[in-house]
Amino acid sequence: MVLQLFKKNRMWDKRPLKDRYQVVIIGGGVHGVSTAYYLTKLGIKDIAVLDKGYLGGGASARTTAIIRANYITAEGIPFFSESLKLYEGLATELNFNLLFNQMGRLDLGHTDAAVYGLRMRAGFNRLLGVDSRMVGPKEVKDLVPPIDLREGRPFPILGALYHPPCGVVRHDAVVWGFARGANNGGVELHPFTEVTGIDRTNGRVSGVETSRGFVQADTVLSATAGWSSTIAAMVDLELPLTTHPLEVMVTEPLKPFLHKTISSANLHAYVYQTDRGEVVIGGGVDPYQSYSQHSSLRPIEELAAHTLEMFPCMGQVKVLRQWSGLCDMSPDYAPIMGTVQGLDGFVLSCGWGSWGFKAAPAAGKSIAHLISTGETPDLIKPFALSRFHTGRLVNERAAAPAAAIH
Q1: CATH class name, domain 104-166+242-329
Q2: 32, 25 contact by CB (below 8 A)
Q3: 305, 265 Cβ separation under 8 angstroms
Q4: Which of 223, 220, 241 is nearest to 59 (CA)?
Q5: Which of 151, 162, 226, 317 would you call most buried, defined as having the most Cβ atoms within 10 angstroms of its Cβ?
Q6: Rounded to two decimals, what is the model's pTM?
């Protein structure tokens, strides 16, 4: 009886792996399952999503899931703004509680140069329809009473970029919601199915080698975050990416005291408090390239020190846990989306760095349109791989300093 009830209430079905699909998606994280979901909305249902681990167990399980649109470029702002708008209605669309909390965000400025940069972002945001504005130290204190304005000390808070629509979301709920929606649309989800090779015939991808046998496909999408270079190497494609660990930690649960997300590029930290009371603390990627996902001592010391510069009241708070994820960093701090010249049937969704989770709905919907129609939507045209050959780089670093700071 219990087993029958479990099977009846499974989030997605367990199906045998076929030897051919119209679309094979490598990567069962938020980008893979979101693309699969939106493909079903366009009538494409013959899809397999393959992941070497469990669904959502890679970068999607290690994100801090901050959703925002206050970027700086004419290419990045509309894209992330569209993704934020999709997030606002996503729980209703998927009929699944995503615990999306639009608490707002403050990007702090501690120097004249930093404030100047934030003012530029505020102006660009407003011109492109994103709700952002500059606030002074008094309003910062009103919005976040526990914060230390650091008056008379190094790096005083001179102002901040306030982005009210920014929010945080439950990362696994988003993956589960998209996966369930994709499954209901006919997509097959195959966890613990590792792709070990990609087959090509006459300049076109024809299928993938997996730990469970060969699978033919008309289109193969690589959505594997920090492992994108490894997958691309299977088709002899060298991507302009480097993979860096990013370490994060959370504190023990505390009574609610922090109702905004706070980021400081000068102090190299960002913080917010979850609904469970834990304070999430993150910063920049580790300076070295590595596929290691082990935690280390130095980042936790630095994150604690930088957080205390903003919130001295946390001096006696205990760290609950620490983890690390992988970030695939591009030279211009912007993603890579689209087809590959000279290799038909192979599509990329990579270069997401530390900002991929917030982009998943817009990226998934746009790439689904590309796969369905063969035409690249205007929203993602600037993020083509070819920009690194033509020199039309996006340069989004100013809005993601540390990859900067989340």
Answers
A1: alpha beta
A2: yes
A3: no
A4: 223
A5: 226
A6: 0.94
